Please model this.
Amino acid sequence: MLQANIPFVRALRLRRARVPSFDHYPFSLPAVRGLHELGLLEGGVTFFAGENGTGKSTLLEAIAVQLGFNPEGGAVDLRFSTVEQSHSGLSDYVELVPGRGRAADGFFVRTEGLFNLATEIDRQDEEMEAIAREAKKWSGVVMKGYRPMNVRYGGGRSLHAQSHGEAMLALLNNRLHGGGVYLMDEPETALSPLRQMALLSVMHRLVRGGSQLVIATHSPILLAYPGARIYRFGEEGIDEVDYEETEAYRVTRDFLEHRERSLRTLFSDDGADDED
Model:
């Protein structure tokens, strides 16, 4: 659970006066260099969309760290580290503007860290099982009341025993209870188009339960969620756009509507057009 003093988030601000130099990463990213304040939907979905390397995940990670979440994915009460320095440090220069209410729950879903998250869950379960065995061995006491994390996170199965997509949906369905702040970094990476539509249903359940979602994504399926605020990250910085203006939508639509032409362009020999 989130600590009681962590609020829903109305906006995030860059403490520009504290930035040592906008010539170095992560401050040199156009999305960060031009950032002053970015408003977030408190009850609903805010998307970060745009090409690779534009700063979507970097800014999302900064929000996660500010909220007290594990930067590699997790929550306030689920922390682990697989590398010495796993985040950019941008969180030290960002402040969150509190919203109206307090969050009852929260989690940072990071697709690239799902394997490490599953490993940590298995480790903690094994540790608790060992403690329970020792307690019963030496005192005859049977530990009660502890629900294994694989039940709470994986629906009763180790996330490692499920496919990448199954594990992702199991985590989303079992761990995200509603009424909280949920950050997701490219969750579609593990999911087929059909499973992405299933994720839309999960998102809608959470929104109806009063949750705030901030999601970095390339998926035109997820971006279609109605009423969402979409921020486009690009070489000119960050701007708010409609769904039909996102690159994910336009490129996907163009490819599907003009598949043969797109393939000819992609597969053409650079010198072929010069031949008579």
Notes: The chain has one domain: 7-112+179-269. The mean pLDDT is 85.
